[in-house]
Amino acid sequence: MAKPKQQGNVANRPLYSRISYLYQAAAYLSTTATNESSETSDLTPHVDVLPQAELAAASEKRPLEQQVKQSVARHLLTDMRSTSLKTQIRLSPAIKRTICKYCDTLLIDGQTCTSVIENTSKGSKKPWADVLVITCNICGGLKRFPVNAARQKRRPVRQEVAPGSSSLPQRSV
What is the pLDDT of residues 10-67, one digit of tens each? Predict the structure, then answer.
């Protein structure tokens, strides 16, 4: 007699955890780099407190640290993407939307990307033609997502309903 299958086991659990860790580390690095830039602009040290040489060295060091954090975060996201491609693990659409597919930057609205809703229909009269356009501030790449359009079902789900057969009852004459 065979053992019953256990439910809840995920195949390739170490790979999923590696991909999750890479994404979380990249998100942490990129948010700390952007948060430091906003905090340092608010808190400017007084000239009386620090000597001029230390003030110049500190101001040169901050952008370099932010740039290093952004590049490390970008490298982690590149590794995450390559790991998922090599192992054929599908990333969720929510994660894909937060990564620029051209430069692998984590897209943070207002900091590393800008979002605009665009309607190119004549006079913007068609509300179903709204498109969310996300522009990466690093490379200038565009991502376009329909806002209110119904998504097409995946191929296996579509093939369950045979083509040519309708779900409506046929009338007998």
Answer: 788 999 999 999 999 999 999 987 776 555 555 555 445 556 666 556 556 678 888 8
Residue numbers of the domain that contains 138: 13-34+61-157
Would 93 be classed as within a structural domain?
yes
Q: Which residue type sits at 159? A: Q
The CA distance from 55 to 76, in Å, is: 32
Predicted TM-score (pTM) of this structure: 0.69
Kindly state whether residue 53 falls inside one of the protein's structural domains. no
Q: Tell which wins on pLDDT, 75 or 163.
A: 75
- Which burial class, exposed, middle or buried, applies to 5 when counting CB atoms under 10 A from its CB (0-12, 13-18, 19+)? exposed
Q: Is residue 1 part of a domain?
A: no
- Nearby residues of 26 by Cβ (< 8 Å), 6 or more positions away: 73, 74, 76, 77, 80, 106
**Number of separate domains in the chain:** 1
